[in-house]
Amino acid sequence: MDLSQYVDALGAHLRTTAAAGTEQTQATARLLADTLEPAVRLAVTDALAAMAAEVTAALDGASVDVLIRGRDPEVVVTQEAPAAAAAPEAPAGDDDGSVARISLRLPESLKGRAEAAAAEAGVSLNTWLVRAVAGGLQSPTSTTQRSGPGRRFTGFARS
Questions:
Q1: Which range of residues forms the domain containing residue 133?
Q2: Where is the composition biased (Low complexity) (predicted)?
Q3: Which of 36, 63, 147, 148 is such that its CA lies 20 to 30 A from the CA of 76?
């Protein structure tokens, strides 16, 4: 979704409003219109993400995600297939209905592998990641024991 027309329209409205003022007011409005572009794009993208979360909550068996490719958001609707038997679900007691947003940075190769796994499971990347985190929290990921007075550790870790 190209946001340029919306960002440009907002800048034009700002300049038109300032046209009633002095030359200094008009110059300030032009400067503000040019420098507000990143903030406007972020605000519109945040509004789209909130809308996508609301739509997803209202849909049965589908999810709406907002992906950022370059500077512009892309809306992706995914019809979810029934969950595979091996896919862990979040424990029912943990879901209070609220949704938290995080920014996750992954190496490009890992992101590609996760996208492929989500596609294979027939779910969105977001759903796949939620299930992966829930599965990772179902059992301890490492056991560390301190042995003696030194700095030697024993145990295992799973990745």
A1: 83-159
A2: 80-91
A3: 36
